[in-house]
Design brief:
This protein is of the alpha/beta class. It has helices at residues 4-13, 31-47, 65-74, 138-149, 164-178, 189-201, 204-211, 217-229, 251-259, 291-299, 328-352; strands at 20-24, 53-58, 78-80, 91-95, 114-117, 129-132, 231-233, 236-244, 267-274, 277-284, 304-307, 310-316. It binds manganese (II) ion (MN). Manganese (II) ion binds at residues 32, 96, 118, 137-138, 178.
Length: 353
């Protein structure tokens, strides 16, 4: 049995000249998904210069300010899934996700040829390579290939994408964020080794820019709104942020994570009206609260879920959704009604368990 790294090399080197490679990742890619995809793109080009084209596709949005910064700083060539035609690609590789057509990758159901992932998902079927490991980051797996090949980085051509320091920076950000700086429970010795390996290769200035990403003004404004609106009962805090634009949706989990650190607070619910839905992020450090059922009791089983102290909800507003014809007064009334219902329900569920 050859190692996954040598199997990957064998497959890529064996591709006929003119072949195209599609690299697919999560619909809403996080830094690990993007770092691992960039690493795979680099390996494909280095291992087989006769490949006609290798492209990364994603089906959703890149909206978190750090993820946007990563795309800009590294010049990531992320392409929209709309432009992906399976007929044009001889080989399909999925990274940081294993199944297509469901869960984190719903935008296509094409059958992959190669799977590189670290989630608890193990789709059946024949694949050229299925490398799924319980490990800190998908970027670690890709980095381990890079290490194993011992490629000579001096001889790569000088086009931007083949710049290994950029690739190493992307992979390093992937490991850093997915493992919370190597502190998450699923971290393995290989994560540490790859982290150290990448530190030597990465571009420190770009790394700094991504880690200390610029925070957009709207986030400060929404934080101010959330702090003004927050209601606390015992160890529970609820904060309604109001009616916000879909492009600002990421503020909700960011504010939830921040409020969870407040002294004396164990449970956080942050929510807003985004488009035609109430969108919410829930957090708890209280082991007595089972997050999934907490979410279901507050927002309904159909529209919410959670695990391990972390939950989310997306509840359709239906008929009362404010639209472009709604007056400010109507919008305020809708928000006021939503706020009253959600706050009341959270505190009721929290107090009755
Ligand atoms: Mn990951």
């Amino acid at each position: 049995m050859s190692s996954p790294a040598s199997r990957f090399r064998e497959v890529i080197e064996g591709l006929a000249p003119g072949m195209r490679v599609a690299i697919l990742t999560q619909d809403n890619p996080d830094p690990d998904a993007m770092g691992a995809a960039l690493g795979v793109l680099y390996l494909c080009r280095r291992l087989n210069p006769d490949i006609e084209e290798a492209s990364i596709f994603y089906g959703g949005t890149i909206s978190h300010p750090q993820n946007k910064t990563m795309v800009n700083v590294l010049g990531l060539p992320m392409r929209k899934m709309k432009t992906f035609d399976p007929d044009n690609y001889g080989i399909v590789i999925v990274v940081d996700v294993a199944s297509t057509g469901r869960k984190n990758l719903q935008s296509t159901d094409v059958k992959p040829d190669i799977i590189i992932d670290h989630h608890r998902d193990d789709p059946e079927g024949d694949y050229l390579l299925k490398d799924i490991r319980p490990i800190g980051a998908a970027s670690t797996i890709v980095t381990s290939y890079l290490r194993e090949y011992g490629l000579d980085f001096e001889t790569g051509d000088d086009s931007t994408l083949d710049d290994v320091s950029k690739v190493a920076t992307g992979l390093l950000v992937g490991i850093k964020t997915d493992t919370q700086e190597l502190t998450s429970p699923n971290v393995t010795p290989l994560d540490f080794q790859c982290y150290e390996y990448l530190l030597k290769l990465c571009e420190r200035k770009k790394l700094y820019q991504i880690i200390n990403y610029t925070i957009p003004h709207y986030l400060y404004q929404l934080k101010a709104t959330a702090y003004k609106a927050l209601e606390i009962q015992h160890a529970v805090v609820v904060a309604g942020v109001g009616i916000i634009a879909p492009s600002q949706r990421d503020a909700i989990p960011i504010i939830a994570d921040e409020l969870l650190r407040m002294e004396g607070i164990e449970t956080v619910v942050v929510y807003a009206i985004v488009g035609d839905r109430i969108t919410s992020s829930l957090r708890t450090t209280n082991d007595g609260i089972e997050m999934n059922s907490f979410c279901h009791q507050v927002f309904g089983e159909e529209f919410s879920g959670g695990k391990m102290g972390c939950g989310g909800a997306s509840v359709p507003l239906g008929f009362i959704t404010p639209d472009e014809h709604s007056t400010d007064k109507t919008r305020d009334s809708v928000w006021e009604a939503v706020r009253a219902v959600v706050n009341h329900r959270v505190f009721r569920v929290a107090s009755t368990g």
